[in-house]
Amino acid sequence: MAEPHHSVAFNPRPGKGELSVLFSGNSQTRPLHKVGPQVLDYYLVHYIVAGRGTFRCMGHEYHLERGGSFFIFPGELVSYESDETDPWSYRWVGFKGSRADEYLYALGISQQQPVHATQQYRKMNALFRQLELTLHRRQPHCDMQSQGYLRLLLAEYAAQRLETDVPVEQSSGIQQQVEQAIRWLTLQYHQPISIEQMAQSLGYHRTHLSKMFKQHTGMSPMNFLLKIRMERAKLLLQETLTIEQVASSVGFSDPLYFSKQFRKWFGRSPSDYRQDQSNNPYDCSR
Question: Which residue ranges traverse the bilayer (predicted)?
Answer without folding.
Answer: none
